[in-house]
Amino acid sequence: MAEHIVSSYEDELRYIVRRISEMGGQAERMVEQAVNALMRSDWGLAQSVVADDLLLDAAQREIDERAIKTIAKRQPMAIDLREIVGAIRISNDLERIGDLAKNIAKRVIAVHEHSQPMQLVRGIEHLSELALVQLKEVLDAYGTRDHKRALAVRDSDDGIDAMYTSIFRELLTYMMEDPRNITACTHLLFTAKNIERIGDHATNIAETIYYIKTGEQMEVERPKDDQTPSIAQTDVTMAPPGSMEN
Fold first, then answer.
1. Is residue 135 part of a domain?
2. Domain for residue 243, yes or no?
3. Is residue 246 in some structural domain?
4. Checking CA distances to 74, which of 21, 172, 184, 222 falls within 20 to 30 Å?
5. Could you give the angle at which helices 2-40 and 182-214 cross, rounded to 10 degrees?
6. For the whole model, what pTM was predicted?
7. Mean pLDDT score, 13-41
8. What is the DSSP letter of 242?
């Protein structure tokens, strides 16, 4: 009887972990497809991403319910409890990544209706490649519970922040040079921000993996290289009178 209970408990844990891995794969595909839809102005692919977000939302709710029931029934301790709590946290981050991919997909038509500087579009594509590498790395780290690899993912977030800052600066320059660029650049700016936030959620997952494996929390405040608030303030202040008017 005791062996049966232990086996059932292990099955529950394995199921939760497997569903997290499935969510991760789906979130990764959604981000890749959303950016591809944006680059190719593919509204059909964008609609597919929006529809897939409902599946990711449902998976996150299922994991939450399963995890809570498992805690209530089994009263896990130590690493088992961290596994379940970690699954709840990671599923929430993956659900948010899905929301961000959906937001990018929703901008496909809006961006297509206005001409955009190709250099900036390619910059956003490169930013998404960095974020996808980071997401893939952290999902692989979760699969192996490699907390050192997760730590490396956390440290690599600076690269995404730096590129986002560069894109932000260029977009702001285009908008200040010609107000007719404002609409298109605003959509690209929100897209870039969504991608940067995907990197942040990948970093959150890395911190959770570290917690699952070691039982310790990483430092709450990690260094950020996003300098966009100071750039916006400086550039707007330095703009010549009337440059932001029609």
1. yes
2. no
3. no
4. 21
5. 160
6. 0.85
7. 94
8. T
Q: Which two tokens stand for residue 133?
A: 């590498």
Interhelix angle for 43-74 vs 2-40, to 10°?
Answer: 160
Instruction: Kindly tell me the burial class for residue 199, based on how many C-beta atoms sit within 10 Å of its own C-beta (0-12, 13-18, 19 or more).
Output: buried
**Could you list the residue range(s) of the whole structural domain that residue 110 is in?**
2-238
Answer whether 53's CB lies under 8 Å from 98's CB. yes
Indicate if the pLDDT at residue 212 is higher than 60: yes
196 within a domain of the structure (yes/no): yes
Structurally, the chain folds into a number of domains equal to: 1
3-state SS, residue 156: coil
For 97-111, the pLDDT digits (tens) are: 999 999 999 988 777
Q: Can you read off the two tokens belonging to residue 143?
A: 């699969």
Cα separation, 218 vs 220, in Å, equals 6
Q: What percent of the chain has pLDDT above 70?
A: 84
Amino acid identity for residue 131 in this structure = A
Residue 132: give its domain's CATH number.
Answer: 1.20.58.220
241 pLDDT higher than 50:
no
* Residues across the chain: 246
Lowest mean pLDDT among 69-83, 102-116, 148-162, 192-206: 102-116
Other C-beta atoms closer than 10 Å to the C-beta of 99 total: 18
Instruction: Average the pLDDT over 80-97 and give the result.
Output: 96
